Structure formats: structure tokens, C-alpha cells
Amino acid sequence: GDSVTQTEGLVTLTKGLPVMLNCTYQTTYSPFLFWYVQHLNEAPKLLLKSSTDNKRTEHQGFYATLHKSSSSFHLQKSSVQLSDSALYFCALSDQTNTGKLTFGDGTVLTVKP
Amino acid sequence: AQTIHQWPVAEIKAVGSPLSLGCTIKGKSSPNLYWYWQATGGTLQQLFYSITVGQVESVVQLNLSASRPKDDQFILSTEKLLLSHSGFYLCAWSLDGGADEQYFGPGTRLTVL
Questions:
Q1: CB pair distance less than 8 Å for A100 and B46
Q2: For A3-112, CATH number?
């Protein structure tokens, strides 16, 4: 079945530094990947999505590129802010009408002053 | 604009007691609806999805059931709670299945003692 792997459970950085959160996936279908962000005690919200190979997608200063050759969709930001502290999920859609999403375990990003 | 409402906001229940959680979506007709479960600080696990009124499909077996009695209403329930049912329950909707963005509700925090 489908799977999503996020290798970092916790990332702690100082404000202003760059960040990359890893996401790799396995699927037998054509992949459609998402990044969701969940702030403390809030619902998850969509940050980015992509199904286009080797095309960078950006939103709110975050960006990611889907690389089908390496089955990856890493999330990056050039300069993190305190407000970026949150739980980040990578998710994979099976693109059927069921809307099934497979989520990774999530990465907690903590940004310090 | 579409709004999603979940009730109750939080519940504390005894093991073996029944449970009913609700979700209502306003401003969108015939959405796809989903129930998710999230352990504290953990990943999101899709439990059920519904494409239309009266039809609900189970994704994982957790001794829970779901129903969609109205186009805009999704109910999650069980007759006997287990300790393992504790967590955060999120309702979500999308325009269609496939790779459409899913919009999450504010969630219900359940504590089973």
C-alpha cells in the first residue's frame, strides 16, 4: 500500500535560518503530494500541493519540488520565523474518488528567538 | 463561504460508555466528508469517508462507526468506548475526492478514563 516517510520527528532552529523537512513516499499510482501545517490546538491547513514532476511550488515563503525519480517532496524555507513553529505533515493522495490521504508521522518544527 | 462546525469541543468519558461526535458543513452542497483521528502529537489517520448521503465507507477498524444522515452532517459514534479511543477527532470536507484539498474542522478532543 501507499506510505509516506518523514524522517525528522523534531527540528529545532533559530529564527532566520533555513529549514528542510524531508518527505519520501511509496505508491503504485501517479503521486499527488501535500504539505499540511498544524499549529498548536488548531486544525491542519493545506500549505502546498503538487503532482507535477520537477516543478517548484510555493506558498507563504515555503516551497517544495516533487521529484518522482527519488520519490521525494521535501519542504523548504529560506528563513524561518517564530510563527512557523508547528507540526508539519506530508501526505499522499491515491487520487481516487475516495479522497484517501496517507499522512506521514509529522515533523514538529520549533523556532527559537 | 463554507464553514465546518464540530461538536462537542471536548469530551471526557468513561471506558465502556457510548459516544457521539458531530460535524456540520455549511455553504457547500454534496461535499465529500471524512473523519480523522489523531493521537496527541501524532499523525492523522483517516477513519471514514462519505461521498454521498447515506453512504459511508470505513478505512480502518477502530470499533467506531459513522453515518451521514443529511448532506451536510457527519456523525461518528460507538456504543462502548475504549481507552485507545482517546485523541483528537477531526472532520474534513472536500469538493470531490481525488486530490482535492481537504478542509479540516476545529476538532473534538476526547479523553477516555
A1: yes
A2: 2.60.40.10
